[in-house]
Amino acid sequence: MSLRLRPLLMLLPLWLGGCVVFERPPVPLTCDARLQGRWLPIANSADEAAKLTQDDYAVVDSSCHATVSMSQVGGDPSSKVEIDVPGFALGDQHYFALNEESVARLFARGLSAEVPQEKKLPTSAVTLVRYRIEGDILTLTTIDGDTVGKLSEQKRLRATALDQFNYLIPGDEATLRKVLLAHPELFGKSGSPPMKMRRDSGTPAP
């Protein structure tokens, strides 16, 4: 991933140390109606807050189709991308799943230095984002590549290295459900605050 994190990519974040994908969704995907609405990024610092503009937002419709708007950075003009954010619930956690096309659209800017993957992803592969909605606050965490690498080295998790930074967690649906339930520590990164968005006060919760 790029070493620059766009403030709005809090909506669908990927940790900067690399990406981790599941071979397929562990559960059939549906649309969580609670995601519907207009969401604004919450800055984690004064520096981040100073960079946010009215062009930084995301709108999710009733079909979990999202429009992600990003403000101008350097020579890159403000832009919008269209992605889908279907998901599922497992245990007491909620996740949405991004296919390869959606991830590519989100990170279309600023990826010129990205290391190409040595192994091609299966078409069913998805990147998972764990989320929690409390009131008008959406909190998101993604899988930490460093944690995956350590668990793989310890033989506690089966993961295929796609290159130096990216991993594929293989398996059928049942196997991948077991992975999520057995390893909640995969999500989040020590010392890094979770990424959050606030529902726009002008768009009441569905």
UniProtKB/TrEMBL annotation:
This is Lipoprotein.
